[in-house]
Amino acid sequence: MKVGFHVSIHGSVDNAPDNALELSCNTFQIFTRNPRQWKTAPIPQEVAERFANKVEKFDLQPVFAHMPYLPNLASPNDDVYKKSVETLTSELQRCNQLKIPYLVTHLGSHVGSGMEAGFGRLISGINKALNETEQGVMLLLENTAGTKNSMGSTFEDIQHIIENISETDRVGICFDTSHAFGAGYDLRTKDAVGKTVKDIDQIIGFSKLKLVHLNDSKGDLNSRIDRHEHIGLGKIGEEGFRHILTSKLGQVPLIMETPRDTRRNDVDNLLKVKELASS
C-alpha cells in the first residue's frame, strides 16, 4: 500500500523527501512553490536533482504535486484566467524538472458565469498548457464537493472535460473521499463503496484514477461542504474507511490532507489507515 501526506517544502523543495520519510510515508504530495502567491522563483537545477535523487534513494515513488490555491481555470475574469493558465503551464514544467509524474489541479469555480462557460474555460486552458509543455507529467483532475459555482463535482462532469482534452493520455483523475462524500457519493458501507467504484469505472474508466486523497468529512453526505476531518472521526467513519481501503481504491496511491490539531497527528492518522486496511 502506497500511503503518505501532503508535506512541507519549507526551506527548500528538496527537504520534502526528508519530511515524508520522517512521517514513515512511502509516497507524498507537495506544492512546488508558495501556494498563496502568483509569482515564484525558478527551481535551481542542483536543488531539482537533489530532490529527484532523494525520492529514488528513499523509494518514495510516485510523487504528486498540487496546484497552488490562487488559480481558477474556470474563471470568467480575463486577468485571473490568464494567470491561472500561466501557472498551470509553469507547474507542469516544474514537475518535469523535479521528475514528478503527476500534478493535481482543482477545477475551479465559474463564479456565476454558468457551467457551460466554465467548461469552455477549463478545457481551453488545459489544452493550452498541455500544448505548451513537454510530455512526462500527467494532469490529475480532482473532484469537488459541489460548493456553489464549483466545477467537477460529478464523474460525468469530469468525463466531459477529459473527452474534450486534445491529449487525453496526459489527463487522469484524483478522487478525494471527503469531496465525493460532500457531493453525494456515499462511502459509508461496503455496497456504497462498491457502487462508487463501479461509477468511476463505467463513467470515466478506473485506469484513469492515479491518486486518492484520503480524507474524512466534517460535512454530511450531499452537504456540499468541503471540510476535511481525521480518518474515521468524521461522517464517513471508520467502517467506511475500512471498506474504502479494502476496495480497489486502496490499491491506488493514497495521500492524506487531514487536519493538524491536538486531537491526532499525522503519524496517528497513518497508523489508523494501516489498522483499518489490515482489519
Structural overview:
This protein has helices at 16-22, 45-57, 78-98, 115-131, 155-163, 177-183, 190-203, 237-245, 266-278, and strands at residues 3-6, 28-30, 63-66, 102-105, 138-142, 171-176, 209-213, 216-217, 228-229, 254-256. With 279 residues, the chain is α/β, with parallel strands linked by helices. It has a single domain (3-278), classed as Alpha-Beta Barrel (TIM Barrel). The strands form two sheets. The protein has an eight-stranded parallel barrel, surrounded by four helices. Helix 5 (155-163) links the parallel strand 5 (138-142) and strand 6 (171-176). Helix 3 (78-98) packs parallel to helix 4 (115-131) and helix 8 (237-245) packs across helix 9. The longest helix has 21 residues, at 78-98. 46% of the residues are buried. The model has no long low-confidence stretch (mean pLDDT 97).
